[in-house]
Amino acid sequence: MPSAPSARSATDGRPADGPAIGETCDYCGATALQWRKCKLICENCRQINKSCADL
Ligand SMILES: [Zn+2]
Question: What is the 16 CA–ligand 1 centroid distance (Å)?
């Protein structure tokens, strides 16, 4: 039988840190957004567009 799965990433509903493809900044319209510690941050204006709690 398979043993208990080890810590998985991005399978528990939490986005992994890294570039957010297809997202657009609500503040400046840039498309360079990154997930950082459960927050979607615009690389251009540094505004937080979204957080895990909003998903
Ligand atoms: Zn922005």
Answer: 20
Distance from C-alpha of 48 to C-alpha of 55, rounded to nearest angstrom: 14
Cα(13) to centroid of ligand 1, in Å? Answer: 24
- Decide if 47 is inside a domain: yes
- pTM reported for the whole predicted model: 0.73
Q: Is residue 33 part of a domain?
A: yes
Rounded to the nearest angstrom, the distance between the alpha carbon of 48 and the centre of ligand 1 is 8
DSSP H or E run through 18: strand 18-19
Counting the structural domains of the chain, the total is 1
Mean pLDDT of 25-51: 97
- Residue 12 counted as domain residue: no
